[in-house]
Design a protein that fits this description.
alpha+beta, Ubiquitin-like (UB roll), three-stranded mixed β-sheet, 24% helix, 22% strand, electron transfer activity
């Protein structure tokens, strides 16, 4: 398909380009039956991998995510089959945002918005590059940032992008006038690269994985949450699966981004959909397909993968033999909202809060005392051993540290802790 585009603000036609020239897919690996052998560490999954396709490339996955601390998705209503190989060639706004992203450790990308609107922000009109003229584009967008809840932005345009985005980088308050309320952790957002005009492996395998994930997600989303004895028990996040443009790493197609954690996965195949979703809904990482994470330098991604794979193995062992009875714990957010959650003895507070999607608890390092994103407040003499030296060291990095600060990943759920809660103790969550 030959595209002619206005590529500058004075509407000069700069070039006619054959934008749709994907490499041939004839050489794609055919269906084979063998156990996958990755060089990325032990396979700690319980998924059945006995019948699947080979990875396109056996190069190690961990550490392949370039460092960034935020990800901005522009939601276009233009379907991926109509995307050019490079959006910068057709979208002047994308070009400007890429410049902005360079100075903000950010990545900007297009996602296909074909889901029913889930917030007022997404009901905004899309004005895509092809219909807009050089200065007329505008898109609803979602901004994902480390240690912040995702933000739905009603409209990003040439006219407002600087002020809208700057507002979120210069204040910690998410109430800028052009944005909607935060979606917090109510959603598990998955973006599958299906950008076939860029690389046919993404177009074929990416599309297959996208369809498989969306099918699984629809099933899960339509399953009623189990009833609970308390009205404030958090339910599973709603899963939104969308297609996204080129993210880098065609050879590891299918590639998937998962938010709010910011984890990147690669070498996925359609029969991985169910296992990936169950890991993510459990708040766990699938280390065997993990490429890296937003907010973590590449060498640290490799180290985290090494530790995480081991942690995962330990986790499986611990969960199979040590988890005890259900108890009830009550968390309270920085603005006073209480959430009573069922938790199993033997879990830790980070896992309980993170799995329930409570705000401000991320557990980025998986409980390895390397991140302080599991910061909680435990005031009023809870029945706990004092913090270890390592916990104290990491607490120095906690934002809003107080005398009663602890790291939730180091606090085990016990009957004694539940009794303290029953008598009025509360597990406080920081604002950030
Ligand atoms: S989860 Fe990273 S320090 Fe607790």
């Amino acid at each position: 398909m030959i595209y002619s585009r206005f590529l500058s603000s004075n509407h000069r036609v700069l070039q006619s380009i054959n934008l749709f020239s994907p490499t041939s897919c004839a050489s794609l690996p055919r269906k084979v039956t063998f156990a996958r052998h990755y060089t990325t560490g032990p396979n700690i999954s319980s998924g059945d991998l006995s019948s699947t396709t080979a990875p396109f490339d056996p190069a190690p996955l961990p550490g392949t995510v370039s460092h960034h601390t935020s990800y901005l998705v522009l939601h276009t209503s233009q379907p991926p089959t109509e995307w050019p190989s490079k959006h910068a060639l057709v979208s002047p706004l994308y070009g400007k945002l890429q410049q902005w992203a360079k100075s903000h450790d950010a990545i900007v990308n297009f996602g296909y918005d074909d889901l029913p609107s889930s917030s007022s922000a997404q009901q905004a009109q899309h004005t895509n590059w092809d219909a807009a003229g050089a200065e007329g584009e505008s898109y609803p967008a979602t901004l994902y940032r480390t240690s912040h809840p995702p933000l739905e932005i009603a409209s990003v345009s040439h006219q407002n992008y600087h002020s809208v985005l700057s507002a979120h980088y210069t204040t910690t308050n998410s109430s800028a006038s052009t944005t909607s309320d935060s979606t917090s952790n109510a959603f598990l957002d998955l973006y599958v690269c299906t950008h076939g005009a860029r690389d046919c492996r993404c177009g074929t395998t990416g599309s297959q994985v996208f369809r498989a994930l969306r099918k699984q997600a629809q099933k899960i989303n339509s399953t009623p949450s189990p009833s609970s004895s308390t009205s404030s028990v958090a339910s599973l996040p709603h899963i939104r699966v969308r297609e996204v443009a080129h993210i880098g790493g065609h050879k590891w197609a299918a590639n998937v981004l998962a938010f709010p954690s910011g984890d990147w996965y690669g070498n996925l195949r359609p029969d991985d959909a169910s296992h990936l979703l169950s890991r993510l809904l459990d708040g766990k990482v699938w280390w065997d397909r993990w490429r890296g994470r937003m907010g973590i330098p590449q060498d640290a991604q490799i180290a985290l993968h090494r530790d995480g794979a081991q942690l995962g193995a330990n986790e499986v062992a611990r969960h199979s033999k040590e988890l005890g009875e259900d108890v009830l714990l009550t968390f309270v957010t920085h603005d006073g909202k209480e959430a009573s959650l069922r938790a199993q003895e033997g879990n830790n507070l980070m896992e309980v809060a993170r799995d329930a999607g409570l705000p401000s608890i991320e557990g980025v390092c998986g409980g390895q005392l390397e991140c302080a994103t599991c910061h909680v407040y435990l005031a009023g003499n809870p029945p706990l051993a004092p913090a270890s030296e390592n916990e104290e060291d990491m607490l120095a990095y906690a934002i809003g540290r107080r005398d009663e600060s602890r790291l939730g990943c180091q606090i085990e759920v016990t009957k004694e802790l539940a009794e303290w809660v029953r008598q009025g103790g509360r597990i406080g969550l920081p604002r950030y």
